[in-house]
Structure to design on (220 residues):
């Protein structure tokens, strides 16, 4: 099973600031890496797939990068609705696995 | 608009059974692979099962293998999860997801005596 480790666990930032979230895989996932956002009490939403492609309707302030085992989600300028929990997820090997999440909170 | 609506959750005793349903609309259901993912309240996401568009490929997480069965009815645009031999640790919100691109709102399953 591929283990995904996200850092930091919590990120405290102010609106307008840049957020950088990391995800490290225990082995290569061949860029089959996605980022998912979840607000409290809401359904998860796919932001990024295949490491760097924005999903339909996702604003350009969200970007993904990385390859192999190390990946990054960047939010260029935080909007109020971006304060949420973010999960990385790999789709290269079964079972599909998720990271433990990074909470982006208002400072 | 893609819509996924789960139903069938509720309170069940340990050892009991429950069948979850997911009604899909807004896309050609029969051409997409589907997943079930669960989330213990306040915790992270756990993938539990996958079914291909034609039901010929199915996978399960080890935590539910042998107890849960995924299925679909393409004529009814519906996905199912039959859950047997339920345990306390199966208590979670269960989401259906299309390719993990679109998710339903989830249905809560509580296993407790």
């Amino acid at each position: 099973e591929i283990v995904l480790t996200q850092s930091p666990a919590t990120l405290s930032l102010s609106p307008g600031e840049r957020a950088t979230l990391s995800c490290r895989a225990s082995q290569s996932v061949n860029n089959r890496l996605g980022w998912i956002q979840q607000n409290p009490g809401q359904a998860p939403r796919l932001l990024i797939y295949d490491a760097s492609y924005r999903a339909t309707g996702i604003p350009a302030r969200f970007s993904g990068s990385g390859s192999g085992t190390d990946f990054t989600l960047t939010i260029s300028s935080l909007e109020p609705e971006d304060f949420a929990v973010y999960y990385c997820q790999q789709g290269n090997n079964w079972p599909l696995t998720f990271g433990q999440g990074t909470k982006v909170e208002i400072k | 608009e893609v819509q996924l609506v789960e139903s069938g959750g509720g309170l069940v005793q340990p050892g009991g059974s429950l069948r979850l349903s997911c009604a899909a609309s807004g896309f050609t259901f029969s051409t997409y692979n589907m997943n079930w993912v669960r989330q213990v309240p306040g915790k992270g996401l756990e993938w539990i099962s996958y079914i291909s568009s034609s039901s010929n490929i199915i996978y399960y997480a080890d935590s539910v293998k042998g107890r849960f069965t995924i299925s679909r009815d393409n004529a009814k645009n519906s996905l199912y999860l039959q859950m047997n031999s339920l345990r306390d640790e199966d208590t979670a919100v269960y989401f259906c997801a299309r390719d993990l691109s679109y998710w339903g709102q989830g249905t809560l399953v509580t296993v407790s005596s």
In short: Chain A has a mean pLDDT of 96. The two ends of chain A are 35 Å apart (CA to CA). The interface with chain B takes residues 34, 36, 38, 42-46, 49, 55-56, 87, 89, 91, 94-101 of chain A (CB under 8 Å). The first strand of chain A starts at residue 4 and ends at 7.
